[in-house]
Amino acid sequence: MPIQAVATFETFQNPSPTRDYTIHIRIPEFTCLCPKTGQPDFATLYLDYVPDILCIELKALKGYIWSFRDQGTFHEAVTNRILDDLVAAVAPRFMRLRAEFNVRGGIYTTIVAEYQANHWTPPLVVTLP
Hints:
alpha+beta, 38% strand, globular
């Protein structure tokens, strides 16, 4: 049965909520429509987050990402909307979404949006000899 395009998320309990660790997700097949021309825009999304209590279920994330295929939206708007929706769903300690859009009219666009929870302080960087 194919995955349905949906605008919701499923989550699961973080298996290590006492530890700061980073989840890296690469989504190479993001598509939406140009709001001016209706032509498709293609991007690779890079999602990095430090979970708190909840994590994002990947199959549901795929369905959510597919829900943008027929939507006309500016790159800046869709990147920030996805970040806002993900933050609302899982309330991470930290989340960064980088959207690298393919060339259109000779111009590449990369949008980076971040969220950091008020209660979270990033760990110090450890430099080893």
